[in-house]
Specification:
Chain lengths: 234, 316
């Protein structure tokens, strides 16, 4: 479904990614792991076309997409859940969700989708008219995911959904991620929490200093000594 | 609890009746003031779209206001263009120049945007002052009496209902616009450009639209001003006036149409009270601006909302 071929990107003279290759097959959860600053978010931003490539190619559903504008990616069904509470704080929860459907014109279906995404996150329904900035950290993360779902994605790019959440909330969020995947959504998951990411994903890549250091089936990586030492603290 | 819909509607109806009978009860001066405040309302709502809704600190608002005034005055006096057509031409010209300003400055933000749009505003005032052949330069320009479908507008009373109708339509259109997809995109750009971008909002286009729209409002305000005013002097189109409008929307509450209306009324009154002391105006606007930013960043509207929701929850 998605393939990155040898992509590089950077900010000014700093190289954030050099020669990253990665594949996400339809229907799977693929994890992209690594330490802070390894280039995980940059990789997602390259896919969603927020950051420009310096070289390499990105293919989505068989077509080359690395020259498209970011809204074209959303229109093709690639929705990003950005890291770090990038909610629209002074807009209502409802408006946050509606912005998720910004490129869609099917008003009636959008209204149904508002109900549908709130079934995953019943708490959002109770907070519909509230300003998003007044939500708790966990609710904001739920809102971010729900907002991306409003775009009816085929591929969901999830950036650090566990960041700053209590273990209980992390579990809830990942239960929903699993459920979404079961219902057919393809997910590329960026995480620092390698344990939980390897647990939900089918396949994983590990980034170090902007390059892929390891890759493999998640089940195998959990047992890999190098991975265990560096990322699982065991 | 928020104020209920019937309460809102009856308040609006009462206000409307008061506005309609106003000229019957008062002198020409009060009607002139009312006209001026309605123009300020249009100006403030326009600036609120750019700064309050979209979060872009464009400080050239008065330049577009001036473009609206001069275009209307020049077209009606020298070329005999009908008044409504001249107003629309002023709006279009202001919008076109606003579009260009937005198109060159959409990359800038915060202080850089504020400074460059400030410079543009100053440059436009210089144009108004120096382009003698067109604007009559520093002597100012007489604005001919407007006539609307055969009716000659000879005084403030005549103009009042036209000005009132335009202001009301502007407010209503803006309310609808801000609830639309475009209004949501404005606010999303204000709240977080990267997140808006990631959700498919064309941030660049949204900003340019906000610049254009805001300029169109200012151009409209200028054209409407020309309906009841008989003279325009470029000195009144300086940065102080932009700051005055900025203070209106900050005092009322950024991002709120009701706030912009309220701020326009409050600051319009203060300006009139200070008419005899123009040298103090800038200082006083500045002080008000700073005090509100520090102690009431959500403005009068924000304070009212907080009060209503508090008394509502206490009643439960």
């Amino acid at each position: 479904m998605l393939e990155l071929k040898d992509i590089s990107a950077g900010y000014g003279r700093i190289n954030a990614l050099s020669g990253v290759g990665l594949k996400v097959d339809a229907g799977r959860v693929v994890a992209l792991l690594g330490a802070n600053g390894a280039g995980k978010t940059t990789t997602l931003n390259c896919i969603s076309r927020v950051v420009a490539l310096t070289s390499g190619e990105i293919h989505f559903e068989g077509q080359r997409v690395d020259r498209l504008a970011s809204e074209d990616m959303v229109a093709r069904g690639v929705c990003q859940v950005p890291e770090g509470r990038e909610i629209f704080a002074r807009m209502s929860v409802r408006e946050n969700l509606e912005i998720g459907a910004h490129l869609r014109r099917d008003t009636a279906v959008i209204r149904q989708d508002l109900d549908r995404v709130c079934e995953y996150f019943p708490r959002l329904r109770q907070r519909f008219a509230q300003e998003a900035g007044t939500l708790s950290g966990g609710e904001q993360q739920m809102l971010l995911i729900a907002r991306a779902l409003m775009g009816r994605p085929k591929l969901l790019l999830l950036d650090e959904p566990s960041l700053g959440l209590s273990p209980l909330l992390v579990e809830q969020i990942f239960a929903i991620i699993r459920q979404l995947n079961k219902e057919g959504l393809t997910i590329l998951l960026v995480e620092q929490n390698a344990r939980i990411a390897l647990n939900v994903s089918d396949y994983a890549y590990i980034l170090e200093n902007g390059e892929i250091a390891f890759e493999g089936n998640s089940a195998d990586l959990v047992r890999d000594d190098r991975v265990r030492q560096a990322y699982l603290g065991a | 609890m928020p104020i209920s819909m019937p309460a809102k509607l009856s308040a609006a109806a009462a206000a409307l009746i008061a506005l309609i009978v106003l000229p019957q009860l008062t002198s020409g001066y009060v009607v002139y003031l009312a006209n001026l405040m309605l123009v300020y309302i249009i100006l403030a709502i326009g600036l609120n779209i750019l700064i309050g809704e979209t979060g872009q600190f464009g400080l050239a608002h008065v330049a577009f206001y001036g473009i609206g005034i001069y275009t209307t005055a020049i077209l009606t006096s020298r070329y005999g263009v009908p008044f409504p057509v001249a107003v629309i031409a002023g709006m279009l010209l202001a919008g076109a120049i606003g579009f260009l300003l937005g198109a060159v400055s959409f990359r800038m933000r915060d202080i850089y945007l504020a400074l460059s749009t400030f410079a543009f505003g100053e440059a436009m005032q210089w144009v108004f002052k120096s382009w003698d052949a067109v604007t009559n330069g520093p002597n100012g320009m007489r604005i001919p009496q407007a006539s609307l479908f055969g009716f000659r507008i000879t005084n403030d009373h005549d103009a009042y209902y036209v000005v009132l109708a335009v202001a009301i339509v502007t407010v209503l259109v803006t309310i609808l616009l801000m609830q639309s997809r475009l209004g949501r995109a404005f606010r999303a750009v204000r709240e977080s450009e990267p997140a808006a971008l990631a959700l498919g909002v064309n941030v660049r286009r949204t900003k340019v639209i906000a610049f254009t729209l805001s300029a169109v409002y200012a151009g409209l305000a200028g054209g409407i001003f020309a309906s009841f005013s008989s003279f325009i002097h470029p000195d009144s189109l300086g940065f102080t006036t932009t700051i005055l409008v900025l203070t209106m929307i900050v005092v009322g509450g950024l991002g709120s149409i009701a706030g912009a209306v309220m701020g326009a009324l409050i600051l319009g009154l203060i300006q009139e009270l200070l008419r005899q002391a123009p040298s103090y105006q800038e200082i006083i606007y500045g002080v008000i601006l700073i005090l509100f930013m520090m102690y009431a960043p959500k403005g009068v509207i924000g304070a009212l909302k907080a009060r209503f929701s508090r008394s509502g929850s206490a009643a439960k």
